[in-house]
Amino acid sequence: MALMFEEGDTCPESDCDGKLEFPDVEGCRCHMGNPPCSPCVKNKLTCNECDWEDDI
Fold it and tell me: Which of these, 5, 16, 21, 45, could form a disulfide with 50 (CB 3.0-4.6 Å)?
């Protein structure tokens, strides 16, 4: 069973108190008429303190 995380959750690393957030998307092409683009789809939840990333 995979763990599910949401934006705003506390980082799952035991020694980190950071919060999970979606970083700004670089290279977004959604405005070109075919959303969602791959940079948006591949944007992962990331800890704002230790840079942990959700692998799902």
Answer: 16
Write out the two tokens for 24.
């700004």
Number of folded domains that form the chain: 1
Query: HSE (CB half, 13 Å, CA atoms) of 23?
Result: 15
Q: Which domain range does residue 11 map to?
A: 1-56
Q: Please give the model's pTM, rounded to 2 decimal places.
A: 0.77
The amino acid present at 21, given as its one-letter code, is E
Q: What is the DSSP letter of 41?
A: H
Q: Give the tens place of pLDDT for each residue, 20-56.
A: 999 999 999 999 888 999 999 999 999 999 999 998 6
